[in-house]
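Q: I'm building a small set of examples for a reading group on sequence design. Run inverse folding on the following structure and report the sequence directly after it, with nothing in between.
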């Protein structure tokens, strides 16, 4: 039995039964059977279903958002925005998906070769609690469009969200077996990956979880996409609009209570504007209001659990023991719930491992850089490479950062965020593969080449 806990109160939010071995087998069999039918459906049928799912998300956004807020603590207004973003993703693939799946024909010496995208089968998704709807939809929308079927192993702490996702799909008219929630614990994952009916795996989560899943997928010779941790740099240069940069920096650091892989975690600021930035940034972070996530006036809810708060507080203690200085905040707030205050760390020793860890809470590390070269070096001096944000109005500096910052994504003069239209993913120990955009659709498809005699001898798109 799963019991979810409301991190704002410490009280139980709901209980959910864990699947038996027989129930798991039944869901796998249903997925395989549904795939055989869904893989040959026309694109019009797939897009119509995606539109209906989007309608259901929009119609039920308040209820869905409240489930997420109760289970992992994000503010209700941000949870509503997350559900709305999910609807937008389903609509995007309904509208743009067919063009992404068009055949391409090329001239070859024997005639023509046509590249065709074909579905592969049931895909297992292992997803985290921090964006409990959006992380799942990033996989589910392209999976349905591709003609595959999905099986979700969600985080134990958001089982209400997991159940609501499957219910929403079915309410929109999805065939049984097209998208199924697997209420199981992590010790069941290896056996699922090894099962011949599962053709591929996608995981969003920690570096450690990614290693375990990659090992299991490697043993089974199955495709895997990994979106892991990040310690994203937020670089500010003298030519930047400082007020805009500070406003974005505050939002980027405390959104979702700092529990986002692409939250800006390390502020790397040129020495010429360091003091001015730090003064403005400190004022912005001190103004962040933590409180009841259901309250419209709250800026930041609790962390996802007491355990997560203790992890962050432990990291902060370690940083301070190594010489880092906490300017303010970064403390557990009194009373019920896993609340803590937003804070800023300075003088963090870059040579120590603690400076290279992902800090999954609402505390920013601020570093001083003497020039562009040092800013790039500091940005890259971590094992992660997910996202980055650079603030400069110098075109040459912009190109330098885009070229040399080791990350899967770079935002220029704006806060980094994901969008259904654009590929999302990282390099280094932040994982591999891409979600979203056409590349996310193609990750779990068979690009089949069909060679025929004859043809015009000219390259064309069919």
């Amino acid at each position: 039995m799963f019991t979810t806990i409301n991190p704002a109160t410490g009280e139980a939010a709901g209980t959910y039964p864990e699947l038996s071995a027989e129930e798991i087998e039944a869901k796998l069999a249903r997925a395989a059977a549904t795939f055989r039918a869904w893989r040959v459906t026309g694109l019009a049928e797939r897009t119509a279903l995606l539109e209906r799912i989007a309608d259901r998300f929009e119609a039920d956004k308040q209820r869905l958002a409240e489930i997420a807020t109760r289970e992992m603590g994000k503010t209700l207004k941000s949870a509503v925005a997350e559900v709305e973003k999910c609807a937008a993703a389903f609509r995007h693939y309904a509208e743009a998906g067919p063009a992404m799946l068009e055949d391409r024909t090329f001239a070859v010496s024997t005639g023509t070769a046509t590249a065709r995208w074909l579905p592969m089968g049931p895909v297992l998704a292992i997803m985290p609690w921090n964006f409990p709807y959006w992380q799942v939809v990033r996989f589910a929308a392209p999976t349905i469009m591709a003609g595959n079927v999905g099986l979700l192993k969600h985080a134990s702490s958001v089982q209400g969200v997991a159940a609501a996702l499957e219910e929403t799909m079915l309410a929109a008219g999805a065939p049984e077996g097209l998208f199924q929630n697997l209420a199981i614990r992590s010790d069941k994952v290896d056996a699922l990956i090894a099962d011949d009916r599962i053709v591929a795996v996608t995981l969003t989560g920690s570096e450690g979880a990614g290693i375990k899943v990659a090992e299991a997928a490697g043993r089974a010779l199955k495709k895997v996409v990994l979106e892991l941790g990040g310690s994203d740099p937020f670089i500010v240069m003298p030519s930047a609009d400082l007020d805009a940069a500070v406003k974005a920096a505050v939002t980027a650091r405390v959104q979702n209570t700092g529990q986002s892989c692409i939250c800006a975690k390390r502020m790397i600021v040129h020495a010429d504007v360091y003091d001015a930035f730090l003064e403005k940034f400190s004022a912005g972070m001190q103004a962040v209001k933590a409180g009841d996530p259901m309250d419209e006036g709250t800026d930041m809810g609790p962390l996802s659990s007491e355990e997560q708060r203790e992890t962050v507080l432990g990291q902060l203690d370690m940083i301070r023991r190594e010489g880092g200085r906490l300017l303010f905040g970064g403390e557990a707030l009194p009373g019920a719930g896993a609340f803590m205050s937003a804070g800023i760390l300075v003088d963090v020793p870059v040579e120590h491992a603690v400076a290279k860890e992902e800090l999954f809470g609402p505390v920013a590390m601020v570093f001083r850089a003497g020039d562009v070269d040092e800013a790039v070096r500091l940005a890259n001096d971590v094992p992660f490479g997910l996202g980055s944000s650079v603030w400069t109005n110098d075109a040459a500096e912009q190109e330098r950062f885009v070229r040399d910052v080791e990350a899967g994504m770079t935002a220029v003069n704006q806060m980094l965020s994901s969008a259904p239209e654009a590929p999302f993913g990282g390099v280094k120990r932040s994982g591999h593969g891409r979600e979203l955009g056409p590349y996310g659709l193609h990750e779990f498809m068979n690009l089949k080449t069909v060679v025929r005699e004859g043809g015009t001898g000219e390259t064309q798109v069919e």
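The first strand starts at residue 2 and ends at 5.
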